[in-house]
Specification:
globular, about 35% helix, five-stranded antiparallel beta sheet, three-stranded antiparallel beta sheet
Length: about 280
């Protein structure tokens, strides 16, 4: 039984997968929650989980130096490709992934952690449709996986619930992931309602700041893809979500711009439902 009526815009050609859960992990509302879709950068959460697991287990030092190299270079989202520093501590590389979805940092971290190890973690978590398939690439060739990551809202929202309670990988590892994701600066999707109506600072809501409402989330954006997964906690109540939208893109056209606008409006609506269920 669900108690949220999720109303999504009637944008032509958009496929949605949505699931919102309460603090017990039970669904409050869902739309095609088992529909596998492309999730862009959301798959980086799995990389952060495996990184945090290895740190908590003593298999990795958070201070291990990681160096960027030309073969891993990629532009687009992130900061590291704009900075002069060549080497950073592993924990700072992970922080860049969580805060600005840094593509170069993702590739450097993934080279250290290993895609097979990330896949093994996903399997151990019981994920069937949710996976990180590849490193980030400026151009995807025919011999590359066709997309960075995939997932369903049902699996991803359940994973967010487990991370929020420390029952995904473990209390310390899950706390690290929440900490990294609480610095996320992209609040254009579900988080927009918490910023505009909930008074949350879009770039200063890190868990260490002690705000009344704690938000951590990971977004993904690509041509024809918008996705947002995360959790918001206020008092003793936590609401988790996963919202994914896919469509056939027509880059640079007014039709595609209208589709993006409609999708973001639908995501904001889900954020309003989340906000309404916090004290």
């Amino acid at each position: 039984m669900t108690d949220i009526e999720i109303e999504l815009p009637d944008a032509g050609g958009v496929t949605w997968s949505v699931c919102v859960r309460d603090q017990s992990g039970m669904p409050l509302g869902e739309v095609e929650a088992d529909m596998p879709l492309r999730t862009a950068s959301v798959g980086k959460v799995l990389l952060l989980l495996e990184t945090a697991r290895a740190i908590a287990a003593g298999e990795l030092s958070p201070e291990e130096p990681l160096t960027r190299t030309v073969d891993l270079w990629v532009g687009d989202s992130g900061l590291w490709h704009t900075l002069s520093v060549e080497t950073l501590p592993l924990v700072d590389v992970a922080a860049l992934v969580g805060a600005v979805s840094d593509n170069l940092a993702t590739n450097v971290l993934l080279r250290r952690i290993g895609l097979a190890e990330v896949a093994a973690l996903a399997t151990s978590l019981g994920l069937r449709a949710t996976a990180l398939h590849d490193r980030v690439r400026d151009v995807r060739e025919a011999d590359h996986p066709p997309t960075l990551s995939t997932g369903t809202a049902g699996e991803l929202s359940a994973l967010m619930s487990r991370i929020s309670t420390g029952s995904a990988v473990g209390p310390e590892a899950d706390r690290l992931v929440r900490q990294w994701l609480s610095a996320n600066v992209d609040q254009t999707m579900v988080g927009s309602a918490l910023v505009e109506r909930g008074g949350l600072d879009p770039i200063a809501h890190h868990a260490s700041l002690g705000a009344d409402t704690v938000l951590w989330n990971k977004t993904g954006a690509d041509s024809g893809v918008r996705a947002d997964v995360g959790a918001a906690t206020s008092g003793d109540r936590t609401v988790t979500w996963a919202v994914i939208a896919n469509w056939d893109p027509a880059p640079g056209t007014s039709l595609d711009q209208l589709t993006v606008w409609a999708v973001l409006r639908g995501m904001r609506h889900v954020g309003e439902q989340v906000l309404a269920r916090l004290p």
